[in-house]
Input
Amino acid sequence: MNKLLLFFISILFSFNAFAVTNVTFWHMEGVPHRVDRIQTLIDEFNTANPDINVTQEVQNWGEIYAKAPASVAAGTAPELLVGIPDFTPILAEMGAAQPVEDFVAELDSKYGFYQKALDQYTYNGHTYAVPLWNMALSLWYRKSDFEAAGIEPPKTWSDLKKAAKALTKDGVYGIGLPGNKQLYTDQTIYSFMVNSGAEEIYNSDGTLRFDNPQTVAAYDVYKELYQYSAPDAANWTWGEAEACFASKGCAMILQFTVISTYDSQAGGDASDLGVIQIPYANGKAHRAGTVSYVNSAMIMTDDEAKMDASKKFLSFLMEPGNYGRFINMEPGLFLPITEAGSKDSTYWDDPVVVKYKSQVETMLDNSTRGSLFGFTNGNTFTSISSISAQNLLAQTLQLTLIDDKSPQDAVSEGMAIMTEAIE
Amino acid sequence: MKKNNIEGWLFVSPLVIWISLIILVPIYIAFELSLFNVKIIGTSGKFVGIDNYIKLFGKSKFVNASLNSFYWIIGNAICQTFFAFTIALTINYKFPGKKIMANWIILSFIIPTVVVVVIWKLMLSSSSGVINSVLIDIGLLDEATGFFSSPNKAFISLVLINSWRWSPFLALIILSGLNSINREMYDASKVDGANFVQQFLFITFPNLKSVLFVLGLVGTLLSFNIFDIIWLITKGGPSSATTTLPLLIYETAFTKFRISQAATLSIVTSFLLLLFSIIFIKSMAPKEDD
Output
């Protein structure tokens, strides 16, 4: 009898020993070399952790806002989902994105998160995602264009307007600015808002404070600069702007990075590629900043074993030695969000980063002054998802760029649209 | 009921039940959803009765999208009919390379929509697009224009792109209709001295009535439901100028996160399409003596 019992117990233990916890990792980095890099890291992790099996599933940004909530409703959500700040409140409100402040604090004590990175995911007394990497908008240009025109790279809005005008000639557009009702336009207009002191969308009580003189000033200067942009910029996303810069059709653009296309399609002369902080409103040097998007991973399961496995995988990615390789899935685009990550040799040793080191350093420096609409100074409310998902900053911009309303009228109407959206 | 009738119903009943399920169940779910105020899919909401319907008709976005849908259907109907007839009548004549041409035109609707969109966006680009360059070279434009930069230009450009994509498909259907017309009628009319226009008006057109009826009905419904090309190129912009009802439904559900309002829009849209189909069939269906 005892032998039989022992047999059953050993069978039970052997089953347990072979039990594998599956973790599905959804991300939107569908470019083949990014998928390959993530797979390499996943393979290393799975080999080192035979009791866990991580698999990646590539999604795309165009669908994820619809697909993720639907997958939660259908009970088929992944364990890990990469997201951006304005996406997280929806999933947190649904109870899908799990609070992870304890886990983040543990990682923070080891690697030291930049505070700005945590701000974008911390509200209602919780942290809802683990920051993974940062992206911040900068102003890109060719140094030789400025030398030929006899002007200095711009620091203020006045400088920028002069530069855009001077560089608009011979079929070249002085500055490539989008006018599309799309996320890229949200980002570019907000980077002007930040630099005029209009980075706050909300008051502390959750009401909107979008309609203010600083916002109007930002929309005004954007409208003025837009005349130097390409005629089809009303339909631009990031790719068109980058292509315009690479083909020398645009003298300046606002972009997270141009390094990859510049290197592969525009000659790749690192010494001629200029990148600077986005110019600020005259007399507002202290407001200098930009828009930044901290990408993160949300843990979407409350199953303890799957949560632990997910945390273990994220810890693996954040480890120096892995982290640099992870964010260098696209060298010169994704920026570190931890002190340790910023010093990780696997980040700085990448050939592309070595070649464009000064540009990457400037991008990293800019990113430390980055903020995101709806996620500033703790004034974060879940209704921001309605504003960002509908691209209402960009929609407001179209009121003045396309419908030719005055910036003041456009901002007032935009405020009304936003108020209705968050009801 | 006669025995034959019962047998007939028994034979078709599995299909009838299946089709009823896949049509009626989603409509019922959408209708039920439209009576609540659910915001995000999968969450619960409060019962609001017909509030969503009352609010819908007062919304400028709904009126704007309905008008855009109407113009979209008319624009596509005109362009596609013109292009499709031109293609079909051309291919209907014997000339060297006819087979190659007939196969070549099919490519436009075999190519995936995403590829079509990328190609057209590149060709219409103001900084590197071939169409701007050609128009400047032949003197029609002084400087590059943005084909999607203003509401009217964006709408017309989209109609033309969509027509380019679907006209060959319609042309093939018309061509099959043309091939079924007895050639002797053309030969006899030639003997009587009929010219090309008279042949078209008195032989070709009357004999294509049933084909055109099907095309009118199906083509209108297909055009109305076009989502991918518009979404991928303009996302309904600029300034909502190309937001048709399908886009508005998607935006309301998945970017505005108002799933009940989107369901309301879907129900109203389904009703409008059903109404259109009934009126079209009643008034345009070819009579037996035609």
